[in-house]
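Protein Record: Sequence and Backbone Structure Tokens
======================================================
Tokens: labelled as protein backbone structure tokens, with as many entries as the chain has residues.
Question of interest: how does this chain fold, as expressed in backbone structure tokens?

___
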Amino acid sequence: MTPPLRLVAVSGGLQRPSRSAALAEHLLDLFAGEGPCEQRLVELGPLAPRLAGALWRAQLPDAVERELVAVEQADVLVVATPVFRGAYTGLFKHFFDFIHQDALIDKPVLLAATGGSERHALVIDHQLRPLFSFFQARTLPLGVYATDKDFVDYRLQDKALIERARLAVQRALPWVESTRHARPARAEDVVAA
């Protein structure tokens, strides 16, 4: 029996509610609608005080370490960040600086971002893809960018964007399945068998 898909989303938003978190949750729900899964949303805003001042992973508290491990052990990673001065937030980058450089090799990553206007839409290709290429992750072909006007009460309302999000997940599924079958079994699954 195939274990549930481990879906982890990282939201670089610093506040709650957050459009980035709302977009990440929407994408997680779309994946979850495709089959059994375990979902986890990592919100960086509440972790900010615990990340501040840490230069090495060993300096981080257990709460942050658990979130890093969840990202490293995910079957699929969804990342969503607000655009800040033309790029992802510094906190978003600081969090990923602690991820082991080999932990995301071949991991499917769906890239998403939120911004005040369409002029920042290229952040996905010019900022996020290079970051996850460093990790040798499989950045999925279709990213999702949302502007403030696409939300009402922190829920996606724009029909074209909702369709793009659905299409991004649908196009991701074959990549996810091929990657999942290529990976060795999880230790806990081998013990249970």
